[in-house]
Amino acid sequence: MKMNVMMEDITGKMLGESSNEERIPDFHLAIFFVRSFKMSKKGVGFLENYVVEMLNIRKEFPGIVANNNINLQVKQGEIHALLGENGAGKSTLMNVLFGLYQPEKGEIKVKGKKVHITDPNVANELGIGMVHQHFMLVDTFSVTQNIILGSEPRKYGMIDIKRAEKEVMELSERYGLKVDPKAKIRDISVGMQQRVEILKTLYRGADVLILDEPTAVLTPQEIKELIAIMKSLIKEGISIILITHKLKEIMEVCDRCTVIRKGEGIGTVNVAESSPNELASLMVGREISFTTEKTPATPKDNILTIENLRVKDSRGVEMVKGLGLEVKAGEIVGIAGVDGNGQSELIEAITGLSKVESGKILLNDKDITNMSPRKITESGLSHIPQDRHKFGLVLDFPIGENMVLQTYYQKTFSKNGVLSFNRIYDHAKKLIKEYDVRTPSEYTKARALSGGNQQKAIIAREVDRSPDLIIAAQPTRGLDVGAIEFIHQKLIEERDKGRAVLLISFELDEIMNVSDRIAVMFDGNIVANVKPEEINEQELGLLMAGSKKVGGA
Amino acid sequence: MFSNRMFNILVPIISVFLGLVAGAIIMLGFGYNPIRGYIALIDGAFGNAYFTGETIRRVTPYILTGLAVAFAFRAGLFNIGAEGQVIVGWLAAVWVGSSMEAPMIIHLPLAILAAAVAGGLWGFVPGILKAKLGVHEVIITIMMNYIALFLTNHLIRNVLTETKDTTDRVLESASLASNWIMEITSFSRLHWGLLIALAAAVIMWFLLEKTTTGYELRSVGYNRHASEYAGMKVGKNIVLAMVISGGFAGLAGAMEGLGTFGYMPTHSSFTNIGFDGIAVALLGGNAAFGTVIAAFLFGVLKEGSLNMPTEAGVPSELVEIVIALIIFFVASSYIIRWALLSLKKEGK
């Protein structure tokens, strides 16, 4: 939805510029340049000025109040965190600021002036730029083409790509955002793509940046670079609103933090005078324990054995290259690695979603190589998939029917091919209660639940099958601390019951806290096996980047 | 205030209403009296026993092609090939009905079954191509329509008859027609087929909503990836959905062949029963009973429109415009939803 609006907006502008006699696009362009000129002259002088003020904002959707009485005041040149659980209303608030939604009540002031942001174009003109969590870039275009898309500099009616490249270089140097203006988006790293997104907003003259969960997709090294970038941006007078769940990042870079809980504004705190514990309890409304409590593992027999596994991805490129791995009953093995080093292909091979080229996968000493997903599931495997919307749930099914996605055909839930909805919904009710899935009812569509509750439902379904092996792929991605705590506890509980758990995550914290053993994956292989207590994040990060300095097993 | 279910019922009703209003405006614009026009329409559909019979006769195949399109749609497939499936079903039913002799209790079910199998086969081809090779079903079903049209013409002219333009009549033992119904409806062409169509709707509802097969089909329709993850065979479900869909459309052919006409003529162009099924399914919200109601509406409009030129002087083309407008309003139901939502807000 959001994307559509943006794309239409961009393409609309493009078309308008090439064929229309109207002057509006030129006018836009003029404003951009004037603003960037002004911006460069602006010092760090007026720190007490609020650049953006959202006062008593209320936004309703049919049946729910998404935002109520929220105040957000962002000072000139600060990094302001917007913290809240999943579904607390952070995105709604930002969409109000960006002009995608109109608030029912309240007022918005930009640089002291009351404004009505009726659509994203207005937000752009006011100097508000948004970097979405999922990038909106054209893969086959170059960095420069992506940045200028919609406000291209022209010469004789044609795009002046030389001038554009020069401007991009200038911007990139001024703010320390290293990019290669000529590279194609599909060839550059995720970190660089993000820098392109930031440049895109700066090119349009933004001096207030909204960054939506910017670190979710980055490696630890890239996160460091981003933090450096944010710091240099505020030195140049840019103000940043950072949407995040990650308390560590808030503590590290933010000046102030506004907390939202269940759509209500809780308040704004000075980060320097606060602590992660205080922020977390403000956010969820209760005390949160950060260190995951667990006893040492007592690994027993091998549950999963992988030997010399080779898997190709959909393009036919070998992604898993002769990998070997063992997971024992009663232990959690964490696979650490930068995204794209074959983790997805490894999971798909184990679960039967991808074909294995060669090698062997044994589950409980039984060969499951290239068996169908159903046979593998029946052999005792549960899988919490990486992408819960694509794989984990049928979003348009009621949550109750999602609870039997792998078991609907079994005797408990059907007889002679006819489903017993009574039993299905009784079962669902039980799981919903047991796993504290917050939903209006078991008949509610899965789509209507918040991310955390969707994930809890998946975990309920997968764990309840009493599998021998649980594969948890990024089980806490995009979730808030409350839900993360719950999911980690569940995984450890299952381990203590003697189940084998294979955890794949890009979050180093998660890997370090939850795993009993860490297998580092790089370029399609396990390059190191380490114990979490014997390594620090820095060393782990180096291993993930392919460095062999910190010895192997 | 408005639940989802309410929306699903309200939107088609409002669409129909808006379509009729728009039709009235157009009639006014061309200098016709819309009230007389619509009265003529109702008269033409229900004015006497004959008209009523003909209306129901027309509704029967619409129900089945509507079900065909809706069924495929629920499994995430767009079956534009209902037209071709009707045609092959028609021929298969007439072939069995006219070329063999058997007692009615065997002959009639066999002829009906032949139609379903022929339609199913016509659905199987695009289904298997989609499942195995990923070819888009819309392209294949469109092409299968032409193959059906010209193949049946060829068969009628060269195999079933010697260069004649119609087949022989089906035997009494394979006919759905009934003297009793003909008498009570002043010799309309109404036949027993309606019962088959209604039974088909019940079967579709039960299959989709109550069985494990239906659960799989709907799951595949909503989310192919999650279905595969959950261990369902996506390809098998695609083929199955297309076969069952084609089977329903094939039955619509049997209604024409064994009921309305009792034979099959060569066709110079499509019958449109299959294409109208797309609109019926859309209007019926792709649900079994919604489709039945939508098919009735279609049948009434189409049959009643025949009476508009004679009784009110309104050209029947205008009725086609009204039908098109109704579909337009259903397809743009987003606008109606949006209007309902803002109404609700203001009401607060």
Automatic annotation (TrEMBL), chain B:
Pfam families to which the protein is assigned, alphabetical: BPD_transp_2
GO cellular component: plasma membrane
Keywords of this entry: Cell membrane, Membrane, Transmembrane, Transmembrane helix
InterPro entries xrefs: ABC_transp_permease (IPR001851)
A molecular function (GO) term: transmembrane transporter activity
Protein's recorded name: ABC transporter permease
Localization, UniProt: Cell membrane
Principal location listed in the UniProt entry: membrane
Organism the protein comes from: Aquibacillus koreensis
Membrane-topology annotation of the record: Multi-pass membrane protein
Record's keyword annotation contains Chaperone: no
PANTHER family the record matches: ABC TRANSPORTER, PERMEASE PROTEIN, GUANOSINE ABC TRANSPORTER PERMEASE PROTEIN NUPP
Alphabetized CDD domains for the sequence: TM_PBP1_transp_TpRbsC_like
Source taxon at top rank: Bacteria
TM helices/strands, residue ranges: 7-29, 102-125, 137-156, 190-208, 238-258, 278-301, 321-340
Keyword Protease: no
